[in-house]
Amino acid sequence: MESPQLVGVHLGTASVHVDVYSTDGERLAGGEAPVAEQTTLAWERALHEAAPALPQTGIGSVASTSGTAVLVDKYGEPVFPPQMYFDSAPEQASKLQDLDLSDLSINQNIAFSPTSPLPKILKLRAEYPDKFQTVEWILSPTTWLLYRLRFDASTPWRDIETDWTNALKFGADVTTPLPTWFESLFETLDLPRSLFPAIRPPGSFIGVADGQLAERTGFDGIKLFQGLTDGNASVLANGGVKPGDFSITFGASSVVKYVSESVSPHPALYYHRHPIDGYLPGASFDTGNLLRWFFDRVLNCTPERGLELARQVPSGHGYEVFLKGNRSPFFDADVAGSLLGLNYDNSLSTEEVHGRLARGLITGIILTEWTYISLVEEHFDTDIDRVLVINDGTPTLDGNYDWWNTLRASIWDRPVVEMEPRTTAGAVMAPALITSIYSDVETAAENLLRERDVIEPDPSVGADFDTQKETYFDRWRDIAEFYQRE
């Protein structure tokens, strides 16, 4: 019998990607379309534009943004605009943080963050109580899109389920054998638990795509399976499949993940349940968006030009840039960014000053990522001998010269394994395992993933950062204490 084709969808904030893979990982077809605005209608239009010719039958799933909430009525129609992961409700978050819910301690800093779903949901309920009464389901974009493909427009949405990676930030306990909701949390908030779907493993079968959206986009007939967050899909695409794997995905943010066999709490880490097996302690912090904003609004140049200016600056001559600590390496909304070592020097041209600023920012990103390599090694008593990396949206020089990863490998003093960005392949890995297309996760990774290059450290570059690495986090702590005193 002919093997089924795999259809992966990545619903991102900037665009929608749809890829079709054979079981040996060949990309048979693919498409991308921009997301014009953050509405469910714009998502549907982008999916329609992005979808290539799809197989009549196949296996499909979706990955999308973590922490975005879609509040819909009984037919899946939005009651409110999507509450995006970058939207914030600090007043409600502050009230949540004052609650005494010790059973949430492992991920409380995530569930009660100002940008997490619960504070924004509570804000909507307080500001629009009558409108909120019409909400039937509160879903992630992943779950919403899968069931939008599944159901006809006139069919009430019943028996909705979601995957455990998307459930996390809505208030799920991922430490139990089968993750479930923190019932005490919803009771305390007087928030009906019935608004939230049952939690299932990623890759669980949903049904066959049979709605109008499926017909318009070519998904009709595709078997749909529970998806996952795009961060977790990227972990799989990065090859993070077995205990000890350490990966960083750089796109809008730096998503740092380590594969562990058990839970070992740490205030700078939050825990996902691994989509396949084990756990994913890690962090996510704004880097890519900050970099693009800095190049555009401060240096008034393209990312490619900004990276070129940074590349021209000798090692150790960039200004010291410390990223915002509201998410990492500290969970403190009051800690902003800092810039040190800015000298008044008329001998430097405008381009040289811009280069030093860009170099400092890029180095700051790499050093902040390094703090997690160091933290994980110490906390889990392990050695990370290589770092799996996906640069999803990182500007490159001359089309293929990866100066960025060379600098990373040199500062981190270990090889960087650059993987091909295949978030859509990560989205279909769990369904492919559950349907026995692959016998185990290693075989799935071997077939579906692609390694681009292995970049070795440059000792001559790394030597410039031996001292700086040791002082970077100490200085960050001093900066954080200064803001806390203010």
TrEMBL record:
Q: Gene3D superfamilies in the record, alphabetically?
A: 3.30.420.40
User: What SUPFAM superfamilies is this protein classified in?
Assistant: Actin-like ATPase domain
Task: Extract one GO BP annotation from the record.
Answer: carbohydrate metabolic process
What does UniProt give as the signal peptide span? none
Q: In its keyword annotation, does this UniProt entry include Kinase? A: yes
Instruction: Cite the Carbohydrate kinase FGGY N-terminal domain residue spans from the record.
Output: 61-236
Q: Which GO terms describe its molecular function?
A: kinase activity
What does the UniProt keyword field contain? Answer: Kinase, Transferase
Q: Has UniProt tagged this entry with the keyword Transferase?
A: yes
- The molecule here is called Autoinducer 2 kinase LsrK
Can you name the source organism?
Haloferax massiliensis
Q: Which gene encodes it?
A: lsrK
